[in-house]
Design goal:
With 448 residues, the chain is α/β, with parallel strands linked by helices. The protein is built from 8 helices and 16 strands. One of its GO terms (cellular component) is Ku70:Ku80 complex.
Length: 448
């Protein structure tokens, strides 16, 4: 009712009534007594509120079942006379029950299948907070369960109606005259106009509202002593268009219509290396620019898995010459941990670059030639000694990872070799030069 949309239709069916009036009984089917349809579904207004106020509580025994009321409601919604059977409508069914009452559950599966086929959303509201919703209500799908308080909060919350852009058919034209090329296309609006809900003028008794217009002078519009002009003045008014600070009179003579043809035409092509999109920010008055990638900018590269090797037969091998073992993984974890030396921490060891810059600024500000400059301490080489064992162990484990290859019978040399890798004694690791092939290329020299 608050939305004011003409496409919303609502109906009301009472369960446990003393009189029986529903579409199922009218078709000659027995067993649906105590269910009363308050009228065909229509646009919600004050009449449906009046019908709710006229209902009184009945203390007599109820012979009907809530599941029967659900069947009557579904049949009423899908009928052509009292509901809407087209799939374009979104059907929502609210049923208010008490979770503690026993209900029949023989036709639950058939009811669920019909609800899914008709795209009906069921929302079950529990009026008894002492019991939770159980079978057979939980077997109904699709359904949502809520308490009475949750239903009241949901009804009081503002409902946002999202507008969807409907496609409009037109023609995309190229050229003019007899050489014109027209292609049928569809246009959709990127943004939809959002308007606040219009106020509904209603009276307690449902009487029509009388609307009157009163005219005042512009100079007296905001004065409390302003007097309204007589109604005969309206015939002397002249309509005008506002052009800046001026008013241009609008004559009643209709303007000549211009012959146009509906269509879409590309006016200009822009050749640019990049394409960007501006998105407005909701929190601040700004735009966020994002560059749109082209198809040539996206390169899809597949990487082989690191923990398994697929074979040609489709099998996976977890143990292979190219997969590191658990011992090698553990050694590499220790090697990575040793890269951060615990001896020279940032809070205890000064950074030479930062301290030299600080001393330079200090000398320039003091402008004293004989100022004593403190020399920053240079980190020693003792921190590399602790990592020497880990580095040697990693080299030993990863040294022979190259698969063995057999030489041909005509080649000279030994029976087997290890590719381009050269066997190096681990004790000579401190003297390894950068040009020596192998896993370690760190040169142990005084320059480090």
């Amino acid at each position: 009712m608050l939305r004011g949309l003409g496409t919303i239709r609502a109906g009301l069916i009472v369960h446990g009534a003393q009189t029986t009036s529903n579409i199922v009984v009218e078709e000659g089917i027995d067993g649906y007594d105590g269910i009363m349809d308050m009228g065909p579904s229509a646009r919600p207004d004050s009449d449906i509120l009046t019908k709710l106020d006229e209902l009184e509580t009945s203390f007599e025994a109820c012979t009907s079942d809530p599941i029967d009321t659900l069947v009557v409601a579904i049949t009423t919604m899908l009928s052509k006379d009292r509901g809407e059977s087209t799939p374009a409508w979104h059907h929502i069914l609210y049923i208010f029950v008490r979770a503690g009452l026993a209900v029949e559950s023989d036709d639950i599966d058939a009811i669920s299948a019909r609800m899914r086929h008709a795209h009906i959303d069921l929302r079950v509201v529990n009026l008894d907070d002492d019991y939770k919703m159980g079978a057979p209500w939980t077997r109904l799908a699709p359904s949502t369960f809520m308490s009475l308080g949750e239903a009241l909060r949901d009804a009081a919350s503002p409902a946002v109606q999202l507008s969807k852009s409907m496609p409009s058919r037109t023609w995309l034209t190229f050229g003019e005259g007899p050489d014109q090329l027209a292609i049928p296309v569809c246009i959709l609006k990127a943004t939809a106009l959002q308007r606040p809900p219009a106020p509904i003028r209603a009276t307690p008794n449902g009487d029509p509202v009388e609307i009157r217009h009163r005219y005042y002078r512009h100079s007296e519009a905001f004065s409390e002593e302003a007097q309204a002009l007589p109604q005969e003045v309206e015939s002397t008014f002249q309509r005008a268009y506002r052009l800046g600070a001026s008013l241009v009179p609008a004559h009643d003579v209709p303007s000549p219509t211009i012959e146009t043809s509906m269509g879409l035409e590309i006016m200009h092509f822009v050749h640019a290396a990049t394409l960007c999109i501006l998105a407005p920010d909701a929190e601040t008055d700004s735009f966020t620019m994002a560059q749109v990638p082209f198809s040539s900018d996206i390169q899809r590269t597949t990487f082989p898995p690191l923990d398994r090797v697929p074979t040609r037969d489709g099998m996976e091998q977890r143990v292979h010459a190219t997969i590191p073992t658990e011992e090698q993984q553990h050694a590499m974890d220790v090697f990575v941990d040793m890269l951060q030396s615990p001896i020279h921490l940032p809070d205890t060891q000064p950074n030479p670059a930062i301290h030299e810059l600080k001393h330079f600024v200090k000398v320039r500000i003091a402008m004293v030639p004989d100022i004593e400059i403190e020399q920053s301490e240079t980190p020693g080489r003792n921190g590399f000694v602790a990592a020497r064992y880990t580095r040697t162990k990693c080299y030993t484990l990863y040294r022979d990872r190259k698969p063995k290859r057999r030489r041909s019978d005509n080649s000279d040399g030994g029976d087997e070799y290890y590719g381009r890798y050269t066997k190096i004694d681990p004790s000579r690791m401190n003297n390894v030069r950068a040009s020596t092939p192998g896993p370690s290329r760190i040169e142990s020299s005084p320059e480090i």
